[in-house]
Amino acid sequence: MVSKFLVLIAALIPVSIICYLSYRIADKVLTDEIKQGLNIFAEKKTQATDNFMYERTQDIYQFSHLPTIKSLFANSAERIDQEVLAQFIKQVLNDTGFEQVYAVNNHNQIIYASQNASIIGKKLAELNDTYKFLEEIYNLSSTLLSPDVVFGQSIDEKLDKIFISSPVFDKGLYQGSLILTLKPEALKRELFQSLSINESHKYVATRQNGKVKIAYTNDKAFSNKSPQADEIFKSLDLATQGENGYKTVKDASGRAYIYIYRYIPEMNMGFLMTHDSSIIYDRSQWLKKRVIFLYCIGVTAILYLTIWGMFRVRKLQHRHERLIENHLPQVLHKFIDKPSHANEVVTLDRACVVRLSIDKIDVLPEHASFLAQELQLICNVYNYMQVLSFNGTTFFISQEEQKQITNLDFCFAIAQAVKLFNQQYESYVKFNIFLSIVPIEMLLLDAEEMRYDLITNKRIFSNRMIDAPLNNSILITKEAKDALVDVQAFDFVALDDDGYRVTPKLVVDKRPD
Amino acid sequence: MTCHYFIFKYNYNKLEEYKIGVLLAQKGEFGSSEQPIINAIQLATEEINQQDGFGGRKIKLVFEDLEEGGLDFKGLSEKLIRDQKVSVLFACWTSACRKEVKPVVEKYNSLMIYTNQYEGVEESSHMIYLGATPNQQLIPAVKWMMDHFGKRVYLVGSDYIYPHVSNKLAKLQISSLQGEIVGERYVPLKSHELNNLIKEIVETKPDFILNTLNGDANIDFFNSLLKMNNHPIPVMSLSLADGMVAKISPHYYSNMYSAWTYLSSSENERNKQFLDKYRLKYGTTEDLNDPAVTAYAAMYLLQQAIKSAPNIKPRVIRDKLLRQSSASPAGAIYIDPLNGHGWRTLYITNRASDGSHLLKWSSVAPIRPVVYPKLQTKLEWEFFTYKLYLNWDKSWGKIY
């Protein structure tokens, strides 16, 4: 029993390893899934921002095609109706998030400024530092000659705005550029609105002279001296250069944060979302627990089945033993009690138990001991043992499950030994050899009767014949057939092999007595 | 799940190689322009293979030399895609080559990455264009030159699709800026008979020349121009590979202007690292050009795409390439999801006395690619290119 428990424990070790590895993989997959999910959130956020900015560039592109705007540039020497234009800008452009409008003609002269009339008519070069950004943006716009987005900051760094410019063409000729500023609120709304992950912090950074500068963030507690500032800047540095990715960062207290960073092409900026991993993973804890629970159930089930199987096998072994002890003698009596003058062989397809009887030993006791020694020798060779003796009949059982051929060999060895014994001592020892089996599957099916076949040159009896599909025939294995052919000396019935069946058919021409 | 893990690991280790076809000239007229692209692809391949390849797949490069193959663009590309079964093709310097290879790529549902600047007016769901489109190169370059040198422009180019379409656009733009075209000439590719052209340029006295000559003809063009005119006329070259500059008289350097989406003297850390690695492997960086650096960046964009793709079917990889961005030696490159073209940063430079680039103007940020310049409608552009195609007897220029 101890050894069986050791086997059980040995079997449980790989099961436990498998369970542990499975859990680790499930955990990793889950963690990666969460990071991927967050990455997709960030991607969607940057895409939404990009789309928002693209729509604004299309707005200004359309705006630049309006007859009002073209006439603004065409009549730049005169002043157009500022009031009408101001009303138009207020009503139409404000709704789409624009704030200020500047128009610069192709002579570098400001011809319209929606909120500062004092600079109208001035050349860009004449403007003070506060409006220096206009010159840079006009320079870019007039060179690219296509709608463009620029994040600009004035020298005092108070005017951090998104500028969108577009060239204005009239009758196929370049007239100048429109420059509009976008309200930061409009962009922030796009960037910071909740993605159902309310706990996240978001940062948008630009790159100026090789250095990263945070333009917008919803992290009110953030400062350049924050404990995580270094890592935030590192991620934003990558994002502003065009990299996308995610990583886990731990703060001084060991708390883990997931950083997702992405590049925003339309604004040439970097975007970073940070998440407290404990909060993020908290949402998936139930899933993790469920995985652990399922694995626990799995392990318990495996344990239960293993123990149940062990007890079941033990129970069946007991049943087998009871069958041998109680049922077998009744069967054997049918033959032993009947007078027989010939050798008999009982055979079956498969065998796990072999029993042999030598009945009516009519020899001198000292001669009988020789026979007993000889039989013991044969038992040792074939690994059989004497298990039962009654009414002068001896039974032998295989120590282990045997192949049919081994059982037959054993039986014929016994038969040969008896034959030689008879010749040597001029005796007439008659013997019956019963090769009977109790297949393990029958035990499992709770078979109440043993199955057996008796085939001799005198009589045949098989409980398999009761429901045999062919009259007076049973199917035997090729091994059994070969063995029977090999021992023609015993004058067995003819074997009929029609050449089609893998399992030969043994045709019997005699019914049981 | 464990079984799946081990099966996955087993399969992962047994993944097939990822074959990349490289269809470029290793010698001849375009050898000096295209060999650096091959070098850059090889360098990136070595680096990526030293990591885990393309998501566990080692890269295998399969080469076909355009020059050796007699400029049989169709046949060679078909050989790579159909026979060699390459998954993606890096091919062509000239647009004439690209126009011939594109139908083959489309026929076999393959994928091609084109890294040279080009004339635009083309889209394909089987192509990724990472070189500059006209609004990322030609339009700003012409405007900048007009702002700095004047409005009288001479257009010179090789006689094939790219210079013709580019010059058509340049003419529209110059006209919209109230400039004047003082001359327009085309010479066959590989032709070095430039005397008449040079004579005409000198006579017309343009404020600057817009040069779309391709190949080694550039060397003769600059040297002859200098010979016939002591005062070098400013030239804006749109397709002059850096590898040729050493063969041009240094007296012309200060008037040689280029518009590329890569600046070799950039202080960008990635650029420094790339130059060090390139120098270590090939001994020099003088031959490096924009398409080569773009090809190097494209390999990493491809790596990102393949890592995130469920399989390596060309169509899937192309879809995954869209929206990819990376920090490259040329700055941020982003692939536009709408048209499969790269967002690129433009650098207008002229040459120092040692031939290196001196930055004159930069777009600072990557520019959104516009495939069909808005000075004409899409249909007008396509009709224009189709007429050219018919005029060249259903080819894309006088290539031979």
Describe the structure.
The complex is a heterodimer of chains A (513) and B (400). Chain A is of the alpha+beta class. In chain A, 45% of the residues lie in helices and 22% in strands. Chain A contains twelve helices and 19 strands. In chain A, strand 3 (148-152) and strand 4 form a beta hairpin. In chain A, helix 1 (2-64) packs antiparallel against helix 8 (285-336). The longest helix of chain A is centred in the first third of the chain and has 63 residues, at 2-64. Chain A is rod-shaped, with a radius of gyration of 49 Å. Chain A starts with a helix and ends in a 6-residue tail after the last strand. With 400 residues, chain B is α/β, with parallel strands linked by helices. In chain B, a hairpin with a 2-residue loop joins strand 11 and strand 12. In chain B, helix 3 runs parallel beside helix 4 (95-107), helix 7 packs across helix 8 (217-228) and helix 10 (290-307) crosses helix 11 (314-321). The longest helix of chain B has 20 residues, at 31-50. Chain B is globular. The chains are: A alpha+beta (513), B alpha/beta (400). At the A-B interface, helix 1, helix 4 and helix 6 of A face helix 5, helix 6, strand 11 and strand 12 of B.
Enumerate how many helices of chain A there are, as a single number: 12
Q: Kindly estimate the percentage of residues of chain A that lie in beta strands according to DSSP.
A: 15-25%
Query: What is the arithmetic mean of pLDDT of chain A?
Result: 71
Task: List the secondary-structure elements of chain B in sequence, H or E.
Answer: HEHEHEHEEHEHEHEHEEHHHEEEEEH
Q: In one word, what is the shape of chain A?
A: rod-shaped
Shape of chain B: globular
Main sheet specs of chain A: 5 strands, antiparallel
Number of strands of chain A: 19
Which class of secondary structure composition applies to the elements of chain A?
alpha+beta
Relative strand content of chain B:
15-25%
**Integer-rounded radius of gyration of chain B:** 21 Å
Largest interface: A-B, 30 and 37 residues
Walk across the major sheet of chain B and give the strand order. Answer: 7-6-8-9-10-14-15
Q: Helix amount of chain B, in percent?
A: 40-55%
Low-confidence stretches of chain B: 1-12
